[in-house]
């Protein structure tokens, strides 16, 4: 797309409200565009509409009018979650009208350089961690994007001396054209969101958009252990900065000794940085990292690579790496009851995220899982279910599917919880069932491997209900 200034006096449709729709509509209106906002939800479900009304921005709720999109429209800015199969977007595409997400608008408006972070798992933890590291080093990070603060809001007033640290979803990146982060990071790729993207090719292409417009002098940070990420390396225009848990890299950030060559967890491992001249510097012992889980070591590697690229010295990394306590709903310790810790990992909305959580513990696990059925067969869970899961409690649309995998894994205690009364009651029943099966030293883990939308409005709501249920056990 062109710079937002070029849409002054031109008709623009913002499709979908929520925080990002509200902010992008206000920004385009301030620039002088003729903005119309549309949301298919009823008016009483669109609290943002009244603010836009007060600014003279028309808001149409309750459906998509047939005349919403026409040849006079110059630009459509869509909420990231709205599928491209939605009728207004199909019509816009037919008419050759540009369709972008709020991230594209914000990119043009930001005076601050952008750090973009994406991946199937670990985005929020890594983004938050990078913000903490940059702040600790005396830099000026502004953390925004998919993490909660719309980018169009965050970039207002940002200066060249600050860093925008931005979590980006595949939905947001799919709707970009010129978006160019100074530092781009792809954490990993797992099969997810296929109901939105249709196939893995579209999903991977959307994620790779984070690198497409980078230039020489920009930095592209890749997980060298992920084959899909590594395959993107020949396509990069920016400087490659890899990180690895499993290989001592000739240049980049890695764990030494690597995890893959020796699975002995008693080894004293450290995070190491090797620069372009081959000089190695130890950053921190792995055991000193502030949050549990091998996958969080991977997040720490990525955070180090980003921070170094942003100008943080090696000596400034250890303190924020050890003091960081993680993010809510991501392998979050809830409470210990009768010698058994309970963990909330509601953000595990795909199998890979649940695998990461399960491999973080040596103790026997009582797993609570299940949720929205997006078409996966969950067979990739089989090896980890065999290794450490003592019992499994299942609910939601996928309970039968995951139960089949659990049976193949040889798990003897498989409990299916029917939906009763409401979602909260159902999850409470699951927690009580898990507690009844727990012996001292067992881990009780909510790690659903599924999105929440079959029963809950968000993974945050699901995790909060789980935590409340745990606190009510005793």
From TrEMBL:
According to its UniProt record, the EC number is 6.3.2.9
Where is this chain's protein located in or outside the cell? Answer: Cytoplasm
- Stretches assigned to the Mur ligase C-terminal domain: 329-450
Q: Name one GO cellular component term.
A: cytoplasm
Annotated pathway: Cell wall biogenesis; peptidoglycan biosynthesis
Q: Which residues form the Mur ligase central domain?
A: 117-307
Q: What does this protein do?
A: Cell wall formation. Catalyzes the addition of glutamate to the nucleotide precursor UDP-N-acetylmuramoyl-L-alanine (UMA).
Annotated protein name in UniProt: UDP-N-acetylmuramoylalanine--D-glutamate ligase
From what organism does this protein derive?
Paenibacillus crassostreae
Q: Identify the coding gene.
A: murD
């Amino acid at each position: 797309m062109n710079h937002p200034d070029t849409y002054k006096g031109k008709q623009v449709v913002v499709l979908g409200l929520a925080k990002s729709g509200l902010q992008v509509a206000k920004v385009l209106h301030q620039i002088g565009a003729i903005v119309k906002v549309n949301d298919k939800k009823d008016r009483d479900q669109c609290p943002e509409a009244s603010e836009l009304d007060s600014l003279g921005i028309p808001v149409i709720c309750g459906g998509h009018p047939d005349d919403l999109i026409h040849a006079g429209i110059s630009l459509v800015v869509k909420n990231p979650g709205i599928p491209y199969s939605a009728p207004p977007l199909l019509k816009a595409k037919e008419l050759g009208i540009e369709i972008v997400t709020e991230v594209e608008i914000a990119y043009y408006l930001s005076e601050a350089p952008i750090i973009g972070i994406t991946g199937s798992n670990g985005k929020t933890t890594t983004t938050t961690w990078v913000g903490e590291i940059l702040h600790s080093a005396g830099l000026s990070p502004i953390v925004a994007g998919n993490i909660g603060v719309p980018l169009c809001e965050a970039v207002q007033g940002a200066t060249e001396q600050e860093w925008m640290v931005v979590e980006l979803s595949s939905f947001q990146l799919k709707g970009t054209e010129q978006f160019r982060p100074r530092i781009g990071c792809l954490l990993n790729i797992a099969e997810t969101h296929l109901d939105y993207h249709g196939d893995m090719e579209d999903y991977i292409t959307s994620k790779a958009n984070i690198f497409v417009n980078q230039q020489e002098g920009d930095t592209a940070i890749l997980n060298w252990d992920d084959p899909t990420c590594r395959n993107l390396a020949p396509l990069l225009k920016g400087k490659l900065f890899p990180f690895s848990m499993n290989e001592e890299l000739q240049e980049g950030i890695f764990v030494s000794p690597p995890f893959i060559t020796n699975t002995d967890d008693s080894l004293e491992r450290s995070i190491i940085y090797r620069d372009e001249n081959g000089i190695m510097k130890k950053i921190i012992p792995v055991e000193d990292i502030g949050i549990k889980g091998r996958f969080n070591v991977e997040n720490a590697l990525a955070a180090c690579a980003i921070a170094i690229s942003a100008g943080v010295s090696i000596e400034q990394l250890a303190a924020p790496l050890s003091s960081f306590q993680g993010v809510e709903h991501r392998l979050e310790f809830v409470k210990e009851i009768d010698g058994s810790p309970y963990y909330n990992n509601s953000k595990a909305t795909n199998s890979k995220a649940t695998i990461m959580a399960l491999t973080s513990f040596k103790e026997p696990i009582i797993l609570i899982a299940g949720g929205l059925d997006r078409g996966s067969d969950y067979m990739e869970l089989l090896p980890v279910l065999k290794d450490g899961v003592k019992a499994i409690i299942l609910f939601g649309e996928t309970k039968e599917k995951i139960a089949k995998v659990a049976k193949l894994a040889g798990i003897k205690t498989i409990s299916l919880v029917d939906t009763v009364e409401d979602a909260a009651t159902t999850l409470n029943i699951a927690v009580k069932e898990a507690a009844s099966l727990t012996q001292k030293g067992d881990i009780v883990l909510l790690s659903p491997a599924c999105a929440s939308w079959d029963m809950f409005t968000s993974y945050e709501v699901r995790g909060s209900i789980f935590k409340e249920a745990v606190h009510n056990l005793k």
